[in-house]
Amino acid sequence: MSTVAQMKCACESCLCVVSTDKAVQKDGKFYCCEACANGHPDGSGCGHTGCECHA
């Protein structure tokens, strides 16, 4: 049986909370999506409702 842990996306300006089993992992950190994990190279946000991250 696995424990589902939830944590805030590692992107500083992102408000999303992700479960560690579904998160995008990069450098030991958990992100809600590829855009956050890659540092928003094209300036776009994560696209999740109510979240304005893009930095």
Automatic annotation (TrEMBL):
GO terms for molecular function: metal ion binding. It comes from the Bacteria. Keywords: Metal-binding, Metal-thiolate cluster. InterPro entries: Metalthion_dom_sf, Metalthion_fam14_prok. Transmembrane segments: none annotated. This is Metallothionein.
